[in-house]
Structure formats: structure tokens, C-alpha cells
Amino acid sequence: MKLSILDQSPISTNQTANEALQESMKLARIGETLGYSRYWIAEHHAMPGLACSAPEVMLGYIGANTKNIRIGSGAVLLPYYKPYKVAETYHMLSTLFPNRIDVGIGRAPGGPAEATNALSDNYLQHVYKMPDLVNELIKYIDNEGTVLEASPLPQISPDLWMLGTSRKSGIFAAENGLAYSFGQFMSDENGAEIVQQYRQSFQPRKKGQKPYVIMALSVICAETTQKAEEIALSSIVWELQNESMEGNKGVPSVDEAKKILLNLRNLKSIERIKKKMIIGTPNEVKSKILEIQSHVLADEIMILTITYSSKDKHQSYRLIAEQFIK
Questions:
Q1: How many CA atoms lie less than 13 Å away from 263 in the CB half-sphere?
Q2: C-alpha to C-alpha distance for 85 and 68, rounded to whole angstroms
Q3: 303 neighbors 6 (Cβ within 8 angstroms)
């Protein structure tokens, strides 16, 4: 089974943004060494706990420090941008790093309302125009049906992906002949049904094209279940802090997380977050991932791992790779 990495470039409480971005580059290099198929980095705005507001900049840096792993955006928040400029940017990356670039497309704001207003005067209007924006981007990326070329034209075009968490995104990906990545780690929807509908509705935009699905999961793996559960506390507490707009200090250490949990009254919220995560030993994680993969029939599993310690994160990805990648 193919495995990939999704990175939100989180900042731990003991890190600067610079250090977090350097860790993202290191994670891509480690992922390449371990045999992961691709590395995607997310776009967020005005979120102090997340370091990457411009994936296209980081991809140039990461591409120059890796050799073979596919790299991409997870995702370009298209309502903020002109499709022509997006095509130019990713064509240039594809020219620099041939046959390695993915363009993930999303429509979420990726930050608070203040950031959305600062980035766009008419964000909601562009959300409503998303089908037109995507179709325009497809034409530039495929270099078909346009008078204007989005130069430089690479020898191999970047791959286009639709990222989503709902039925609507799956249907949209199918109707436009796009590969589809479903973010199960941030969705309450039934991923298996959405993927099945995507496959049944898929309309190839190129000859020989077939539907392709990535299932994105939140996973933390360690040598023992107890250690994995302990490491996961940082991610769980940080998620709770983000929900209450208190996550601006970054991912807390395990000790910090334990202290915060002592004052937490609503324990149901912890279980709610844990239900969207896979936490355990290599065998436990492997069993759960295989169960999800066989149920959803995903072509690839993309793993998001948020920990306080970079060492714990790297070890988690390493342990998982040893179970799947030969």
C-alpha cells in the first residue's frame, strides 16, 4: 500500500516558526528515505500555531532538499487566487522538479475571518464560483482551450487533486476528472460512501484516466500503546485549544497537556477527537489502517501526525513505514 505524509507545519511551544518550517523540510527528507510516496504541506493564514501560509514557497525549499518524493500543496485555497497565477506557480515548480509536483485544490478559508477579509474582498463570491475557477485552472494546467499559456510550460504537467471532506467535493472531483483526497481526520462524514460515489461518478478528462483516492488520517504510533496515548495528548489538547481559540501558543508538551487536562471538565470532547485518530503500536496502527483501507478501497493512505517532539513524530512515521513499505 502506498503511504504519504500530510504536514500542517505545527509550531510546538518550544519552537519558533523558523524552527517549525525547518522541521517540515526534515520531515520530507525523512519521508523520502523511508519510502513514502508523497509529501503535502497545508496552507493556513493568521493561525499562530501553524507556520506555513505559503506552500508554494516551502515546496521550492523542500524540492531543493529532496530528490524523488512527490511534493505538493494540501491545499491551494483557490478562492483567494487567480487560476492563471496558480498555474504559473506550479508550472514553475514542475519545471524545477519534473514529475514530482501535485496541486491540491481546496476552498476552505484556512484561517479566521479577519485573514479572509485581508486576503480577498469577495471570498464568498469566489467560493460560489469554485466550479469556474477549477475549470479555468484545469485548462491552464492541461494547456488546452486557452489562448494564453501559463509559462513556463513543464515537460510533465503537475497532477491536479481535489481535497475535501464532503459528498459535494467528491462529486465535484468526479465530474471534473480529478484525483480525490478525502480528509477523514477532519470530517464526520462517511468516507466510504463518499469515495464509492466518487468512483461511480468519475468522468475521465484524459484518455485512460481512472479514479484515484487518497484517504487522509490522523495517526500517532509508538512502541507501546501507553506511550502512543501519552504522546497523543499534546495533539488532542492542542485541538481543544484551537476550538476554543486558545491554541496560539502552539502544540503543548505532554506535561503541559496533562496539566491542562486536569482543569478540563468536558471529557466527552477528548473522546470525540480521539475517535478521529488512530493511536497505538505498529501492529495496532497497521490493523486499523488496513481495516479502513479495505472498507473505503482507498488507493493510498496519507498520514497526518502532530506531536510536540519532532523525535516522536519521526519515530511514528518510521514505525508505520516498517509495517507497510517494503
A1: 7
A2: 26
A3: yes
Q: Which amino acid, residue 314?
A: H
What residues of the chain score a pLDDT lower than 70? Answer: 247, 265-266
What pLDDT shows up at residue 77?
98
Burial class of 291 by CB neighbour count within 10 A (0 to 12, 13 to 18, 19+): exposed
Instruction: Give Cα 41 distance to the centre of its chain.
Output: 6
- Rounded Cα distance, 174 and 97, in Å: 28
- The C-alpha atoms of residue 274 and residue 269 are separated, in whole angstroms, by 9
**75 preceded by a cis bond (ω within 30 of 0):** yes
Residue 89 near residue 56, CB atoms below 8 Å: yes
Q: Which residue is it, cell 481559540? A: 245
By CB atoms closer than 10 A (0-12, 13-18, 19+), residue 166 is middle
Residue in the structure block whose three cell numbers are 471570498: 123
Dist CA 26 CA 271 (whole Å): 32
pTM surpassing 0.85?
yes
3-state secondary structure 35-59: CCCEEEECCCCCCCCECCCCHHHHH
DSSP string, 206-241: STT----EEEEEEEEE-SSHHHHHHHHHHHHHHHHH
Q: How many helices (H) and strands (E) does the chain have?
A: 13, 9
Question: CB of 9 within 8 A of CB of 41?
Answer: yes
Q: What are the residues whose beta carbons fall under 8 Å from the beta carbon of 87, sequence distance 6 or more?
A: 137, 140, 141, 150
Q: Do residues 51 and 10 make contact, with C-beta atoms less than 8 angstroms apart?
A: yes
C-alpha closest to that of 158 among 84, 74, 90, 86: 90
